[in-house]
Amino acid sequence: MGECAEAFSPLLAPRCPLTPDACSLTADQAPRLRRRLHNCAELGYNTRTMHATRRAILEYLRQHPGATVNDLARALEMTPANVRHHLAILKAQGLVEAMQTRFRYGHGRPPKHYRLTDAAQPMHLEPLTRALLDYIHEEGPQVLADVARRMCASFPTPLRGNLRERVQQALTILQGWHYAPRWEAHHEGPRILFSQCPFGALARDYPSLCQLDAHLLSLMLGAEVEHDGRPTHEPPCVFRVKPQSLAA
């Protein structure tokens, strides 16, 4: 959805400036790499944090599934050893997988062929998401509560423990959903703050998504939770927990 928060997880290594020195490229190679990185950005890859060479490898494998180390080395003008180094990192991150061919040509081991994993395939779900959100809006607020219950189906609601323990568990779950959450103590009760919205720009067009977040927090904490009503495009998004409504 929009940003999809990060199409790949966890993405990835420190940002690499697009300079020949920083990326170990010659001056004539840099423009070619920049074009590949532009394609990566259009696909939704996290171009700010992923190492430039690995972005180029992912883009090449997207266009040429089944490429070998030598194919990549020739296309990106790198040594095979350097390609293997970056492939090993991408494999460890679950973005690339090797396909062992069944056929052998000549003597020795057949070459490995590489492709993107499902996790590395960018998804373009915004049209579908907007249609579903329009349907939810038309059906009314009860649908949001039903959606929240489905999202929480894999863990007990409310979460176990006292309020502080429930809050900590909820933050862990929400962190995995790319909310970038934290909590603050307040004399009226805890406040949950989201520094990042996983719905991206959709939240501006569908402010009811904030009510979905409130439903999620209410289910997790076993307490009434309300959004503070501030505009959704101004982070952080703040939710107030009402301790007097705590479930036993």
Can you walk me through this structure?
By secondary structure, the protein is α+β, with helices and mostly antiparallel strands. It folds into two domains: 30-120, Winged helix-like DNA-binding domain superfamily/Winged helix DNA-binding domain (Arc Repressor Mutant, subunit A, Orthogonal Bundle), CATH 1.10.10.10; 126-245, no CATH class. The chain is built from nine helices and six strands, in the order ααααββαααββααββ. It has helices spanning 30-43, 52-63, 69-76, 80-92, 126-139, 141-151, 163-176, 202-205, 208-221; strands at 96-100, 112-116, 181-184, 191-194, 224-227, 237-242. A four-stranded antiparallel beta sheet has the order 3-4-6-5, with helices on one face. The protein has a two-stranded antiparallel sheet with strand order 1-2. The chain is elongated, with a radius of gyration of 23 Å. Residues 1-25 and 39-49 have low confidence and may be disordered.
